[in-house]
Amino acid sequence: MEVNVSFNLNGKKVSVTAPPAKSLLRVLREDLGITSVKPGCEAGECGACSVLLDGQVVTSCLVMISQVDGKNVITVEGLQKDGELDPLQKSFIDEGATQCGYCTPGFIISAKGLLNENPNPTDEEILEGVSGNICRCGAYPRIFNAIKKVVKKNVI
Amino acid sequence: MITESISKYSYINKSIPRIDSTDKVGGYLLYLTDLKLENALYAYTFRSKVAHGKINAIYTEDAEKVNGVKAVLTYKDIPAMNGYGAIVPEIPVLAYDKVRYYGEPLALVAAETQEAALEALSMIKADITPLPVIHSIDEALDENAPKIHDKGNIARHTVVRKGDVEKARSSAYIVLERSYETPMQKHMFLEPEGGVAFVDEEGAINVLAGGQTPYRDRIQISRVLGIPPEKIRVKNTPTGGAFGGKDDITVQIHLALLAYKTKRPVKLVWSREESGIAGFHRTASKIKLRTSVDRDGSLLSNEATIYLDSGAYQSFGPTILDVSIETINGPYRIPNYVIDANLVYTNNGIASAFRGFGAPESNFAIESMMNELADELKLDPIDLRLKNILKTGEVGPFNNEIRHAEGLEEALKRAKELFYRPDPTGPFQRTGVGIAVSVKGVGFGTLPEFPSAAIEIAPEGRVSIMFSNVDYGQGINTGNAQLVAEKLQIPLSQINVLHSDTKFAPDTGGSSASRSTFNAGNALLLACEKALSELKMEAASYFMTKSDVITYKDGYFYFKDKTVSIYELAKRLRFKGKSTRFEATLEVPRYTEAVEGTLEVPHMVYMYGVIITKVEIDELLGKIKPREVDFIADIGNVINPAIAAGQIEGGIIQGLGYSLIEELNYDKDGKPLNINYTTYVVPVITDSPLINVEFIKSYEELGPFGAKGVGEVSIIPVGASVADAVTDAIGKRNYKLPLLPWRII
């Protein structure tokens, strides 16, 4: 059995036909050509497939496509506005917060979700906010700095 | 220390953002497991559920009948050699007589749909008679132990010695004898092993898969398929993390075999659990040291017995053992030593390269020993090291003349200012500080290497640089672009990097042994010199003069009041039908003779580092929190301080995982127990301490613009420094990593 699901992806309406239990991650990668969501574990452990679902950070590997009908999905591709990188994306570049880069989109989405909910987080809240994402290259100090810098700018 | 403001360079010593970082933050960078080929088959691997056993039969008939199945391959389908392995090709591509670890591949399936492939996979049956499982080094060494290989359970044994240890020991003030153990560590890169393969219109087999060494992958594929390497293309970039775990073959041969047999594009990606079961890991170690010291703290002798667990086969095991031999004396003056080194087979998966490559194992032993000797001698641990470190120009323990060791002395002196115990943050908390020194050779030691690299000057105003080393996150793309920009004095924006693809890049070797910058950088600089010399002659022709009166600056040649750009000259060369691609080969400087009993000892160029770790321990829970880590590095001249510091920070964090929480375990049947991020826990951002990285001002003349290497230097000494800090906090020494709460209390 397949279901027809329509949702808003990075500001555009999309429709897909897929088995209802197919993960949002697989639909994004296999049916919609969105490859920034990475299947690092497909078990909700690593955070590399994080997306914003109606503004909430979720690991798209644990979301069934049938749960997405009528909702808003934002991936890192959707953060750019008029070709301009989001301040978080710029900050990740400036602070050298990427190494292999495989975890980067997931971290940026988690940070975006955190700042949407709490534009002025404390250091502890920043750390807690992205503690569900794994970076095996260990770019953590620079990832923290990158997010912190955006927070500081928001405050000023 | 190096600061950017005082640098005399235009493009190096500069923290330029990675050239691929916009693609990475934008989500546009396509990793090889992201590739979707039209008409591609889905491929899966059938693996053994027996860790050690005799194969009686593999039944594939039912699987072959499944609708949509295009291939079910076993060892019978391998055209030529059924073996691979970076040093000794003894690992079966598909097992044929025995299985030696849980998860060993027995068959491959490729089908039109995922469902068909999985159905076929479920229909393959293997008839295997189990044999007793060897779980550990100790079990493997038991004389009644079953033999994993016909030759026995010792893959390599060698003894290296110098001087007279008995005599030295008998006159010593203190002799300490200790045993140390380190665990198997999983790489746990975020992108699992995987990629795609296809046969192109010229009949060549293209394998695009995460890896570290494209030309060696190509040779290994070629031997198995029995077709010449020129008919195979390997591309390894981009790769989502490797750390040594993608240096030997993972999926490449299986992919090539399936594409070759089916003539269809194929995609094969391991699941996280499959990566956990069948991927490589770091050698576990058991090291015994008996070390003696004089009353004044001078080291007199070191007797080491090293056992490394290679798992079921040797991948890089023999050379990992060499690095453990070379680093077991630390960077110290030890006139008498005996090193008895053993590489042992067990049924624990396959151990292979992992950042540090035998050095973290040995370093934990010798640096823990140094800290305990300092305690016994009632000497400051930094003073004890200052007394014993080899100085520039001295002859080292392996008859090598020591180059540029002054950086280590400076780093130790700086460490004195940072070495203090912090105050606890609250009640029931204890704090401690620990220290260790890191040393590791850059490159392959005495093994010959001749890396080639090329640059091509396009009249349109671009310089392409070509090398085969892989950028898997360490930043070699950016670093090499900076080196070429500096050499040619042209903006970085004019440089285009083509790398780690046998289709475009000459063989520069792979990314391992902290040597990519040294080898590829040097070879690229040679290629630049070749280009400039050739272009100068073309400029002479253009200016109608002799080449020796022409000068060069910022991408232009000058003669009197006239100028011509390298791009204009490239246009002229093309017009004349000449090539604008310049390739050069480097003869890597090395000692030509390996120390007897070793394959590659010693190295000529060493990286150094000093680490200070400050921990806080919860008295009630035994939980160790690393609070602050200082790392003072001598990595030669620093091409890109931010990227180099990022490498050092990352190595420290991986090292903290290794020291505190990470340990791959197998059950009684030889089945791995922790194969995903829930069961094999790696550090997350809240585990990351405050890290302070400092670079010693240093210049290695043999390196490109004075650079040595950086990738491995920081992970090596973490274990000993953490164990030392824990000792400082709780007053009890620990000899086994990881320092789990129940081990330290």
Number of E strands of chain B: 26
CATH class of the largest domain in chain A: Alpha Beta
**Number of separate structural domains of chain B:** 3
**Mean pLDDT over all positions of chain A:** 97
Strand content of chain B: 15-25%
Number of helices of chain A: 5
Please summarize the sheet with the most strands of chain A. 5 strands, mixed
Q: What proportion of the residues of chain B is helical, as a percent range?
A: 25-40%
Q: What's the quaternary structure here? A: heterodimer
Name the CATH architecture of the largest domain in chain A.
Answer: Roll
Q: What portion of residues of chain A belong to β-strands?
A: 15-25%
CATH class label of the largest domain in chain B: Alpha Beta
**Tally of separate domains of chain A:** 2
Tell me what the structure shows.
The complex is a heterodimer of chains A (156) and B (745). Chain A has helices at residues 24-31, 87-94, 104-117, 123-129, 140-155; strands at 3-9, 12-18, 50-53, 56-59, 72-74. The longest helix of chain A is centred in the last third of the chain and has 16 residues, at 140-155. Chain A has five helices and five strands; from the N terminus they run ββαβββαααα. In chain A, strands 2-1-5-3-4 form a five-stranded mixed beta sheet, with helices on both faces. Chain A is globular. Chain B is α+β, with helices and mostly antiparallel strands and 745 residues long. Chain B folds into three domains: 4-30 and 449-585, 2-Layer Sandwich (Aldehyde Oxidoreductase, domain 4); 41-131 and 193-269, Alpha-Beta Complex (Aldehyde Oxidoreductase, domain 3); 359-443 and 593-744, 2-Layer Sandwich (Aldehyde Oxidoreductase, domain 4), CATH 3.30.365.10. Chain B is 27% helix and 24% strand. Chain B contains 18 helices and 26 strands. Chain B has a seven-stranded mixed beta sheet, with helices on both faces. In chain B, strands 7-15-14-13-8 form a five-stranded mixed beta sheet. In chain B, α6 (214-225) packs across α7 (252-262). The radius of gyration of chain B is 27 Å and the shape is globular. The two termini of chain B are 40 Å apart. Chains A and B meet through α2, α3 and α5 of A and α1 and α16 of B.
